[in-house]
Amino acid sequence: MSHTLPIEVQLDQTECCGSGLCASIAPTAFRLDTSGVAVVLDTAATTDRDVLVRAAKNCPTLCITLTDNGSEIDLF
Ligand code: SF4
Fold first, then answer.
1. What is the pLDDT of residues 23-35, one digit of tens each?
2. What pLDDT, in 10s, does the model give residues 12-66?
3. 25 in ligand 1 pocket by Cβ < 6 Å?
4. Which of 42, 44, 2 lies closest to 22, judged by CA?
5. Residue 37: its pLDDT value, please?
6. From CA 52, how far away is CA 54, in angstroms rounded?
7. Whose CA is nearest to atom 1 of ligand 1?
8. Which class is 8-72 in CATH?
9. pLDDT at res. 65
10. Tell me, what's the pLDDT at 4?
11. Coiled coil: which residue ranges (predicted)?
12. Which one of 28, 34, 50, 68 is separated from 8 by 20 to 30 angstroms, measured CA to CA?
């Protein structure tokens, strides 16, 4: 089946510790807002899947969820 939809990126800000790792690994997908909590950028939709997976895997609180065509991507 061909890949038709961009990967959906969700972030639970209540769990974010503000490490900034996601933004350093995937700066086109995440940034820290002025309160030091990560936000998902619109350009996350065009960010390479492998980069998104690496960012999600390295999140110390695992608060990033990636969904591909309706199925959550298994990070580990
Ligand atoms: S890597 Fe995780 S905990 Fe760190 S800023 Fe990003 S979302 Fe927050």
1. 999 999 999 999 9
2. 999 999 999 999 999 999 999 999 999 999 999 999 999 999 999 999 999 999 9
3. no
4. 44
5. 98
6. 5
7. 59
8. alpha beta
9. 98
10. 62
11. none
12. 34
Domain locations along the chain: 8-72
Helices then strands (H, E): number in the chain?
Answer: 2, 5
Cα–Cα dist 38/70, whole Å: 23
pTM comes to 0.92
Residue 19 in contact with residue 56, Cβ under 8 Å?
A: no
Question: What is the C-alpha separation between 37 and 53, in angstroms, rounded?
Answer: 19
How far apart, in Å, are the Cα atoms of 2 and each of 6, 8, 44, 47, 59?
Answer: 12, 16, 20, 18, 29
- Phi-psi region for residue 26, left (φ > 0), alpha (ψ -120 to 50) or beta? beta
Q: How far is the CA of 1 from the centre of ligand 1 (A)?
A: 32
Extract the tokens encoding 39.
């936000």
